[in-house]
Records
---
Amino acid sequence: MFEALSDRLSGVFDKLTKQGALTEADVQAALREVRTALLEADVALPVARDFIGRVKSQAVGAAVLKSVTPGQMVIKIVHDELKTTLAGEGDADEGPKLKIDSPPAPVMMVGLQGSGKTTTTAKLAKRLKERDGKKILMASLDTNRPAAMEQLQILGAQVGVDTLPIVPGQTPVQIAKRAKQQASLGGYDVYMLDTAGRLHVNEELMAEVEAVRDEAKPHETLLVVDSLTGQDAVNVAKEFNERVGVSGVVLTRMDGDGRGGAALSMRAVTGKPIKFVGVGEKIDQLEEFHAERVAGRILGMGDIVTLVEKAAETMEREAAERQAKRMMKGRFDMNDLRQQLEQMMKLGGMSGVMGMLPGMGKLTKQLEGANMDDKVLKRQVAIIQSMTKDERRKPELLQASRKKRIAAGSGVEVPEVNKLIKMHRQMQDMMKKMGKMGKKGLMRGGLAQMLGGKGGLGPSGPMPGQAPGQMPGQAPVAPPGGFPGLPGAAPGLPPNLPGGLSGLGKKK
Amino acid sequence: MSFFSRLKERLLKSSSKIDEGVDALMESGDEGPVDAIAETPGTAASTETARSAESAEPQPGLASRMLGAVTGRSPAVEKQRVLDDEMLEELEELLISTDLGVDTATRIAANIAEGRFGRRVGGSEIKRVLADEVARVLEPVAKPLPLYAKKPQVVLVVGVNGSGKTTTIGKIASQLKGAGKSVMIAAGDTFRAAAVEQLSVWGERAGVPVFKLPQGSDPASLAFDALAKAQEDGADVLLIDTAGRLQNRQDLMEELAKIVRVIRKRDETAPHNTLLVLDATTGQNAISQVEVFRKIADVTGLVMTKLDGTARGGVLVALADKVGLPIHAIGVGEGIEDLQPFDPAEFAKALTGSTD
């Protein structure tokens, strides 16, 4: 999702970060492109305009333009605004919780024809049943579309949720009444009313849904919106919210090919949170919506902003610079390795770092499968700590008996100690190579710039645009599995991953 | 009463975006920068009166007026405004807000500005020119569904989920039947629950036989069998429904390609028409839908549904501009008769709120 928007934006940001100093005109031009990108992604015009206005007012100030990394600052502002647009202010933790505590709690689904109400009803019922252990009753109030009731009945049978028996000829209000009755008699926790699709301008049908609302007094009224919707999304959302009163939004078809501007418009227009997103045709493909993650995804930067912030917080700049110099000379002993491992851990461990890297989102799942957990990092630090000072400085001292002692001291087996030593050796070799390659080597754009001089919060600068390009370039230098802390611990990973990761390690 | 007159009526009444937007645009010009006005000496007096009329009641911004409740404005004298950069931009935005897309909106706005830039223009003029411009883009693509002598003519109907394929098939079947054709429908959506039942109801309404297999059957073999049956029965037209699929779902698009391949085993020239059904509320994604479906299934024409809402289907203009596939018909309601031929001039007028 959001690929198209994401691509466009990263292009704009690339240009921004490549320039050292920014003028107001640069920012204006960039924002104009951002605006076009948003509109192309079907973000509603007023929302896009408002968004750009807010970013502009923050971004053109002297504080930003005179800062060390104006490009970064602008991106950060865009990111923050994106998050605000998606999540609304203040109630970020509201989350996808539904108010369904007092049984039987009515939940009403409304939306246009073909937005995916019936499927979403079934998905949500399944979710409530399985995750929250609720007893659910579903009722279709769709008396218009042929076979709509049968559709819900079939879906109900599939997910193992009861549906209200179909009585032909009843009006939606009568069905709602019957559902309420049945729900209280049958001891159901929640009853879900799947209303017919209706156009928000159809007076008759809107009156009908109002009547149903007055009858059922739903605790939650979820507006189901197709995320492929264009500029009309605002009209739909506004009208439904005004007439029926919406408590939350469900966006469907988020697995479509990535424009999803409707997601950005919804919150701004209705002021109501997006609670869930439908991400596939299968009945379990319903996800919670987290504004923060989505903002990251839209910017195509994973959550690079957080990574940069964290990196700045946790890395002592001087220490890192000293280390960088040592590495340039090809010196890299166990102490250096330990420092790297510890920095990794401070940044939130493997999964933390990976999750925040651009383009790594998909790999994170594979990583989990590959058993690359943070325990490995901890254990390796422990191994190093079990070495004497001499051994740490001169790893070549390590003989069989010393290894045995170290293994015993850190509570691991000797092969693990060997792995660490091997990893260290590989990294040391690499450092030497890089030292010879000098400025053309990996270190360029890496540590030195990242923390030195005017780099400031530099690392995120090259990352969104350049990281993918760099990785293949690094691959030949980095032996597979050269990632600090994880020697060959990545079976089944795509070939470019180890190379990319080793680069990451060294940058620290 | 035709859809367009109904639509036009509604547009004129309240909810037209462009119509109202153009009017708003005219007024916002009076609040605009002074230098723009200064450029055209001699009109200062009229501007002055307009401004004093304005200042009596401060107007909300263009956006809120476009979206918010409409107050009953009845301008006795038509507002005029100098067509400058700012107005051009606002015009562009107006077009974008009907899903025209940035590219097409920019082009059309530029065409309008040609020869008029720097002049004072009125709202009705802009609307008329806009309608002409849009109609000009749409003219070449307005073609009814072609009927061939070939029996049976196979019409494959494709689209994303919820775009209205099944309903459209029901309507087409009914209209063809009314025109004296013998029609058969193949219920090819074997995926969605109760899709077959839904189509059966439409078949009954239209008085047309529906060829069906149980849910979960292979849609390609269903299409093949349906074609065999249609050939056997000597039907004039075979309408094949398919399951909704998002165009970025590789597996489902492959399934569609297979349906086409298998149909061709039975009749090399089939499918004679492949209709892509688009939802009028869809935004710029429609362009990618058309591109991908065209590549996979050789789409020959478009049908746009749900035009009875507030969505104007402006993306059709972008599509006509960029892709140029024929637009056969539009859906304007849930009734069996609510499928109408596509009339570019009417559509353009409805889109822009032009009255003449």
---
Amino acid sequence: MTKIIKVKNLNKSYGKFQALDNLSFDVEEGEILGLLGPNGSGKTTTINCILSLLKFNSGSIKILGKEMTPESYDIKSKIGVVFQDVAVFEELTVYENINYFCGLYIKDKELRKKYIDEAIDLVGINEFRKFYPKQLSGGLLRRLNIACGIAHKPSLIFLDEPTVAVDPQSRNNILDGIKKLNKMGATIVYTSHYMEEVEQLCNRIIIIDKGSIIASGTKEELKDLINIEEKVTLELDNLSDKYLEEIKVFKNVEDVTYDGKNLYITYKKGKNNLSDLIDYMKDKKIKYNKVFSELPTLNDVFLELTGKELRD
Amino acid sequence: MFGHLFINRLKVLLKNKSAIFWTLIFPILLATFFNLAFANLYEDSKFESINLAIVNNDDFNNEHNFKTVIESLSKDDDNQIFNTKYVTEEKAKELLDDGKVAGYIIVNDKIDIVVKSNGIGQTTIKYVVDNYYQVTSVMGNIANFNPEALKTDILNKLNENTNNFNDISNKNVDATVVYFYSLIGMICLYGGTFGINAVNETEANLSKKGARVSVSPVHKFKMLIAALLVSLLIQYSEILILLGYLVFVLNINFGGQILPVLLLTLVGALAGLSLGMFIGVSNKKNEGMKMSILISVTMLLSFLSGMMVLKMKYIIAENVPILAKINPVNMVTDGLYSLYYYNTLDRYFYNVISLIVFSVIMIAISYVFIRRKKYDSI
């Protein structure tokens, strides 16, 4: 795989605050790389440094084998960026907005028209092409924002938290669109603090906290880093302290809590955890309503690595 | 590419209803209001001879040239400026105390003006005396090098200057035109809203749109120049519409010199745009706040140029002349005023050049900020 972006020992500070601390990573051609971290962890700063918008203290950034500078117009022509905040002209219609931004990259009018139509289809705003931004809902605005950033068919796309404050329908539409772009050959760098999105979308994930990379890999690799196998929840009305104490000493049990309605059990890695628990319930004739098991999430990974929740 | 940037910028600005209202509709409404409010002031504002007292002592009678000038300006004809009384110093003081004269002149070693307040009359007396000094100084230099030439030239020179003074005594002068001239000055500076908008949408550290276009393969200066050219085109078109309204609908007199008026308003528009660029690029306040700063500054400068109180223009010119010289609204107002009042273009060109210098300084300072390519924070 060709490495499209190479970031090496990147340091960026705002006064005494170290925003990026010796950050190094690569982005491979054709992948969707997720930068996952809580708000203020340095995801957007990383993107802005890569795009040569921000000065950084030290380190190097190469895109497509060349050093990225503000004058790297040949590189810029292959990049598409969707910033976190919507950046469109209120005075232009949906179509005119996409035409304006696409026109900064594509001179040929016929080709541009084709690309705009495809971008409108991709994000699903065909029936709104003559609408002005103020007539659109928040979700549709986000979709327009994305269309403006990707209409010129870039081979490398940066999406900085594109689904913040978006309704579920628009979110699914946006995520589907990103998958399509990737299938069409685009390499994507996707930042988010929504672990579900990153899990669903990304081939590889880098977890950032306080400007440092704390872990990276596929979601499976990341989950292997921690000692949790699964989390089981049982809905039951009554559980005596005696039984609770017995469950706590089961094989592989890491943690047990009971709130009067639900019993939560966290298991370390091991086999037959759930079946052993159900056998115990039958044996003790303890009635329960529902039982379900969850595999560890990226939030669990983040919690174990940093001691705090991803959305703190 | 330039065409794409230009056309789309034009679309954006023409569809910006708020900007169009403040830079086109509002001044037309204000001009209409001025016209209604000042319709009856016109008669009152017709030029009346200024009551002046001269202390009739030996020094005055020996200062033949000055005496000739005063007599010429006091002649009872259509071009009379002064209604002069030749009196003793005590009587002159009495007349001034009673408000019967705008001021009096006493000649001793030099020519002194005594006044008790500021106004058109006092400014005119001072202007005449200053001009006299200026002319006699030139004549003195000629006398040192070519005394013969002086004999023939001096009277012509004095006559020329008397003609200058005569211009302002034109019986058809309407002082209320200053309100309309300062309105044009104000609108020139209101064009700064386009300048603020142009830099705001080009600089990555000022807006999200700026960040978006900064990552595109288009050079920032190409984008900025397209935006500024469109801004200047729209602003100047609006000024032309306003001028047309003033001339053809409200019958405001511009001294019949339309080409110099067009040039002056063009450089005025440039000055407004450059001031907007400077305000836009020199700080990281939001666009609304920058617009407020521009409008506040413009209103203040317009007030100092006489848009709300006509007398203010003269008070500033008298007491804080430097403020009058660096105020772009006053440069436009004074440029138009000089076209209307004087036959010569010296003062007009002084204002045109001042506006160009102002614009160049603003653009140069703005360039220092705009040339940055990367930012410490965005």
---
Amino acid sequence: MALPKLVRREHASLPVLIAAPFVALAIAGLSNLVLYAAIGVDPLAVFKAMLIDPFTSYFSFSEILLKAGPLLLIAQGLAIGFRAKVFNIGAEGQFVLGAIFASAIPVYMPQASGAWIWPTMLVLGMLGGLAWAAITAFWRVHLNANEILVSLMLSFVAIQILNYLLLGPWKDPMGFNFPQSVMFQFDALLPILLPGTRVNISLVIVLILTIVAWFFVQRSFAGYRLEVGGLAPNAARYAGFSQSGAIWLSLLIGGAAAGLSGAAEVAGPVGQLQRAIATGYGYAAIIVAYLGGLHPIGIIFSAFLIATLYIGGDNAMVSAGLPIAAVNVFQGTLLLAYLAAATFVRHKLVWPPGARA
Amino acid sequence: MTAIEYILAGMLAAATPFLLAALGELVAERSGVLNLGVEGIMALGAAVGFITVYSGGGHAMGFVFGGLSGAALSLVFAFVVLGLHANQVATGLAIGIMGLGLSAYLGKPFESFTVTGVGKIVVPGVVDLPLVGGLFRQDIVVWLSLIFTPALWYVLKHTKLGLLLRAVGENPHAASAIGYPVLLIRLCAVAFGGLMAGIAGAYASTIYTPLWADGMIAGRGWIAVALVVFGTWMVGRVFLGACLFGAVSLGGIAAQTVGLAIPSQLLASMPYVVTIIVLGIISSNRRLVKLNGIASLGEPFEK
């Protein structure tokens, strides 16, 4: 049997690079619709609920923007590390620590008022995520430990810290024993950006930070050093670029971005610290980062897409009876299909020259 | 029963899911492939195994289908990383997310259902020994694992197959130059890893805690991946590491029986904290890691 061979291209193919996410979406979409049909859910109803309905009302469109914010910010932070081959996959834990740090103000000062409160909470959240990621950086740089495993294990620990606080010292005394903190006071909540929706000021912050990320990756020397470290470690070492510095920088940026998102979540749509804040943004952001080609501009589109799938998945659960786990299956298939399609950016298929061979 | 007796009696069964998944991952990594999807593959094996047993297929078929589902998912991984040279880290994560999603999807109608486990096989005589007697009362899967572990060690260390696997992991180009099919060997190693992870999951959901709950694997697949590093890719050390984690995961209950008031969240995070600490201790011995590490781990092989 004549199998085609994968041959390296001389130059990376730009058309394939741009087409890859769309091909991946088509492959993931088709294979998942088959899966839905197999459990007796009408694929067309799911398709409509997932990709059409979210755009039919102002409110549901605003909910997409609301979800896209944290995904976009976390993914920008992670992508900087991934480009440098520093695999921080513990953004979920850094997000949770950010939410916890930010909540300290309204929990300990529920009566406080003033315009300083929510900005301080965001800064605290950023520091929380940064501190949590710093543990991983220390373990990697000084103890040579694998950052994938350490950052992930720290996410499991972060969830337990959250549970401990919500069942113990931070539990709302008037909360009927539910594991949640007090509802935050007005000044601890982010100002609403679009009237009549839950979209808040953090979206503007995220977009500004996206521009900063673009500048850092494309135009700054520090970004260049990180990139060389990822693509050609030996060249980076020869040029005197510090590998430890790259690991610290990558993890701290990723941790700060995730922590800030966690803070914006509790001070934004949720309005209190509760278990449900850990919904997997930190893991979904890994998919967003790759699907966006690890490029600051590409990530804007992929964050929007994954946010649409979240909102669409909720719709499909209500209107077409789709199990919520289907969204995770879809996300996993999408990333897998993208990684497979992205192979053809740098490779092409060559069929063996038939009978003469 | 004292706390020590309790831990000794339960340690091996608690260690078995870690052990089986870690040994499978060890074989895959020895061939040079890093599969980070173990957590999701275990979850899928757990769901499929549980559904099989619950539907009356029996425990043996639970292991067969659990293992095969794990192998099938790992073949998808193998196709993308071996056939298409994709990034192994990202692909492993994608497979992990898919496996967790699929397990929740398939297991949804069975949430919180239980099945009956299997009986214990006792070594007569020694089981009555003080303190260590409980070690000799284990279910059949634990006994089989105790036979399988040295057998795998022997195959890896003393047979041509084991040598071949190591050659492919250490220097795929040299192995390919003398005519060995590098990608085929890696494919088999990855499929074996998936089979073992699936079996490990099925053991967790049908015998160790015979019930289905979404998220029940709870990081055990990731700890299995960490165990391979702890064990510096050696079977004996991976076995000791798995026993340590078996003991740690029982330590909480044991501490409560002797009346220590420790917050349950602290106990629940012990396995993860211990993983982080031990990972730091072992990895900081750079010479040991370099000596036993796999030279081509995670690198795609292109001729």
---
Amino acid sequence: MPNPLNELLRQYLTVAIFAGLGLAMVGAMLGVGWLLRPDRPEPQKYINYESGVDPLGVMWSQSQIRYYVFALLFVLFDVEAVFIFPWATRLEAYGAFGLIEMAVFIFILALGLVYAWRKGVLRWV
Amino acid sequence: MTPLVDPLLSGPIGLQEILVVVFKVVVAFAFLMVAVMFMVWFERKLIGDMQNRIGPNRAGPWGILQTLADGVKLFFKEDLLPDNADRFVFKLAPYLALIPAFLIFTVVPVGGNYSTGDGTVSLFGEETLLQVADPPVGVLFVLAMSSVAVYGVMLAGWSSGSKYPLLGSVRATAQMISYEAALSLSVLSVILLSGTLSTSGIVAEQSQWNWNLWLTGFIPFAIFLISGTAELNRPPFDLVEAEQELVGGFHTEYSAVRFALFFLAEFMNTVTMSAIIVTLFLGGPNGPMFGPEWLQSWVLPSLWFFLKLFVFLFVFVWFRATLPRFRYDQLMDMGWKLLIPAALGWFLILAGIQVASDNDDINLALVVIVGVAIFFAGMGLLMLAMRSSRRQRQLSGVTD
């Protein structure tokens, strides 16, 4: 009987081997491309694309804060999921008490979403 | 067999174990490559059919080698790296996009008889599951990898130092993380019923037609399918590369092999996402079993798995051919105001039903009726809230 830790590490070792193979494939493709491709540098080729006309203004431009706010909201729900996943696998052990606990937890987090909604964060205009 | 040294120094590994790993890795790798090539061709051909065109038909029989021809062409293209770009991140991004797409496939069980057996097959004298790896937290691994894939898209667009790619990538990031929340919340229902996070465990729980598709009551499946499509940036959620607005989106500045890598990652993600849907909701390799032993352990389960996989590949192409693209505010509204609350609510109902069926002194039918009633009342309130917020928006002078 193999010990459980041993077995666990072996599973991830296989994943690591697979990742290595993927890495090697990406490297090999780029390598073959490097060998085969032509190289005829011209200054115009290295200008950023802007629908065919000469680009205007600063290229390292800024974007809106709204996207960032969604990232913050996402953290709320991802942390929530981290707590719920282990709970969900062991529900029968916790029973009705565990269910009420989780309902309270989800309710508090849902309040976070409602707050964001009321604040107009989810509004996209 | 003399045991070799374990790379993790945690015990001896025999030669046949190494053979098993090598066999699995090579087969999975080859399958993914062939599947991607097939998927690209299949999508073009099917879209062609749906739009009453012929589609690719020159390279090979029925144009099946078209993908190969396109791929080879890209090797002969000049590789451009814009002066403005952040050189290191620009080169790093394709790796970050492609490798997670690879890794998700490692935890998908592609065969093995789970209906009348325990899912293992005999390979080089070793009893093993037909999946590359079976970590105990397989589902979390899938979610983690799809989160890492966001980095590839985000960094590709940002490092180009150009306007369209930047817009495409911030859009992509916001979209992918929003729908990832909905995705993981809908998976919770499956976890609840299966009681395990391992993919092989989930498949084993679904043997004998106990598929999660109906056991979880269709709603988690619908949420997963929708948010999975959004996670893949496939139409109707392809705002990331909306050609009319953003040229090519985050990979506008990429050319030659680096572009091919993004393309590969996109189609690989489509294949793996279909495989994950089949695993979580449609019982993976489960299906009717008959015939001799070799047929039951090797052929039939894999056949069922690939048939189901094929159904979802078809569905993704069908979506693209029929549905018009969402507008960005509609996309965000649907994710945050509809899918996430629905997934959470349905999860709580399932948990309630589960607890009630474990307890003999609780009336199960009552719990089901009250739960579903509360769920639909909640969704009704949500719709009302959305309508009133839309009215407010119109009053404040912004047209919807």
